[in-house]
Amino acid sequence: MNERVDKAAARPPGFAPRRHRDPHARLRGAALELFATNGYQSTTVDAIAQLAGMSRRTFFRYFSSKEDAIFPDHDSLLVEVEARLGAMSSGSPVEAVCAAMHTVFESYLTDHDVALERYQLTHTIPTLRDREIASVSRYQRLLTSYLGSRYGRSAKGALQAELVAAAVIAAHNHVLRRWLRRGCTGRPRVDLDRAFEYVCSTFEPAAPPDRLGDQARSDDCDPATIAVFRSSLPLAEITEAIARLADEADPLDPDGTAV
Amino acid sequence: MNERVDKAAARPPGFAPRRHRDPHARLRGAALELFATNGYQSTTVDAIAQLAGMSRRTFFRYFSSKEDAIFPDHDSLLVEVEARLGAMSSGSPVEAVCAAMHTVFESYLTDHDVALERYQLTHTIPTLRDREIASVSRYQRLLTSYLGSRYGRSAKGALQAELVAAAVIAAHNHVLRRWLRRGCTGRPRVDLDRAFEYVCSTFEPAAPPDRLGDQARSDDCDPATIAVFRSSLPLAEITEAIARLADEADPLDPDGTAV
Q1: Which of B225, B245, B248, B252 to mutate to test the interface with A (most CBs of A within 10 A)?
Q2: ipTM of the complex
Q3: Which of A237, A249, A259, B30 could form a cystine bridge with B17, CB 3.0-4.6 A?
Q4: CA geometry: angle at A12 spanning A7 and A18, to 5°?
């Protein structure tokens, strides 16, 4: 926190916030500036409005409270995520929610200065941290609801929906926090893709069918055979074992679902 | 909410809270009673203390705020979960965190009247719901930290720790909420065991090695090789491919830090 205070104090007061033409961004800039210099508790809505060169009334046209000023517009983002899920015409359920969460991720990437300031504030002020955690849970509920509609209303479907939603959110936040901790450096999009690939492969493994019903039986999915061997086994024995499996495969399950 | 208010109003005032000898339970009973009859916002700490037949000062000896009075003692529970994880000498990382979370689950089961009243309150009062969500995240951080120490400090280990912790917490809460929604009926312990088994089999499938780093390399676990081929491929090509794989296996990343 000390570094932030010094950095902010070195700037001419009001410089950053007044730069923005957009009133929303100006108010947010003023709030971040004052939280960093005077502390979160001591900053009033009046002071934020004053620094932004606006009235208290204008502040409340854009935000419902002091802490609202530094958080992303989750209401709009949730609507966007929901719309994206609704428009999804291809992909597995896990792929769909991962794709939709890119919308949220990009909103942090676009505004990385604000994301970084917010990260530093939520790290030191428990009220703000709790508030952020509560926001995250709204995305999780939205994803759970969508996944529930795809997995079906069975007890297993409902559980799977909860677990996948929790894992997707955890993967998103893990990559986001890592990028913020490193001062917004690195390749966050690549990291997110990898993390989401890992979630997809965990919950929708490529080979075994039947895990997610129709998904694994789609036409563009080549039937596969999986063989597991001890790595200490000589190659000749492995070849022999495969030959035996090949003999056995035909009369059994033509879809190659064995093993 | 209306049903609860009626139910509470039908009881002689102060009956339930005064029954308990334990001051902690008496104060909590009084808080629940008043929240249900007069509403959460209108209930003061003074009113709670008065109904319990105690002083305001005594109230603050047991709770730091009005809402504290209805939540489980998460500080103690977190210490218990941490101690249980520390004492875990067998089982995989996922099994260990699932076992430790039984402690939390049992605390809800033991006090099911309070759990039910709390569930109804957190459902209708956003402040309380956010507060509960923030509590849940403390368990998730604790499990992530334990799992991180078991999976290793690689990028993959850190991600895996986050995902497993999120899934275990989601499974726990899914079963808990389902039981509460059904008015504390059914077989919650059986449901929890099944949900945890599902989490374990998702993150630690029986066959594939390498998924969990050191875990799969422990002495009692034979290293294995998995090969996936199109079932239409001629056997000769499969044998050749295996030979190639065997050559390539050694120089690859022994820690599997990718992802």
Answers
A1: B225
A2: 0.71
A3: B30
A4: 105
